[in-house]
Structure formats: structure tokens, C-alpha cells
Protein: Transcriptional regulator, PadR family
Organism: Actinacidiphila glaucinigra
Amino acid sequence: MCILTRMSIGHTLLGLLESGPRHGYDLKRAFDERFGHDRPLHYGQVYSTMSRLLKHGLVEVEAIEPGEGPERKRYAITEAGVTDVARWLATPEKPEPYLQSTLYTKVVLALLTRRDAADILDVQRAEHLRLMRDLTERKRTGDLADQLICDHALFHLEADLRWLELTAARLDRLAREVSA
């Protein structure tokens, strides 16, 4: 049975442990370098996650070493952990259709409350374009991993911009339907 079922810090840490045993601070550093560019982990997240993985038998403490502060544990992945990561990696992610996005809700609420929904769309378009410029620069100066993650985000933002344009073009019709 897969204990961790969605994209999780736990699966990521387990995957990092497959290359060999590590201390919690090594796991945090590896996570932050590969996946935490925009949201680095807090040490508390690492240790609470490792505690949960230990409880479920997905990792084990390979060694306890004295340190300047508390004892330092070196964690190793178990066979059950390897199996869990393999299962998670092989499970396709559910596509997120965003059928009830916050932005859609804002547009409809603006129309219902007789506010200018076009202004909401314009402000959002400007924010999307700003973020796209930032991501394009990051992609230009980044390594391949950065380029790939930026491409992923940019493609989503492009789709959002298409939706913004389509919604702006249909705003009068949507206003009539919402007020009916």
C-alpha cells in the first residue's frame, strides 16, 4: 500500500535517499538545490517528514553520530521505501483542469457585484506577463533543470493568458448571463 499518495516532500526525500544514506541537513540541502528554488524546506519539515517515514518503515536510522548539538541521525531508505517511491513514480498525476479557479470566481463575482471585471482581467494579465518575463530571464540564465521547470510554468501561464483574452472577448455575454 502506498502510504504517501501525492506529490510530497516525503516521496522526494525518499527518492534522494536512494542514492545513499544522508543526514537530515544533507537531505534539506539536496532538496533545496534541486526542487526548492522558490520554496526551500524548513529543517522542521525535513525532520517531521523523516519521523513519519521512519514510523511507516520507509526509512531506517543507519547511524547515530554525536554532534555539537543533538545527536545526528543518518537515514537510509528501506526496501519498502524503494517500492513506495517506484509506485509513486509510476502513478500518473491527475490532470488539473482548474474548472473552478479563483480567477474565474473573481470575474463572476465582479460581474455580480457590478464591478469592472475587465479591470480584474487587465490586472491579472499584467501580473502574468511580469511573471513570464521573470521566468524567461531565469530560464535564460539557468541550468537545464531550471530551464525545464521554467518551461513548465511558462506553458501554464501562456494557457492562462489565452483564457484571459477569451474571457475578455466574451465579457459582455458573460455579464448578461450572470445577471439573468
About this structure: The mean pLDDT is 88.
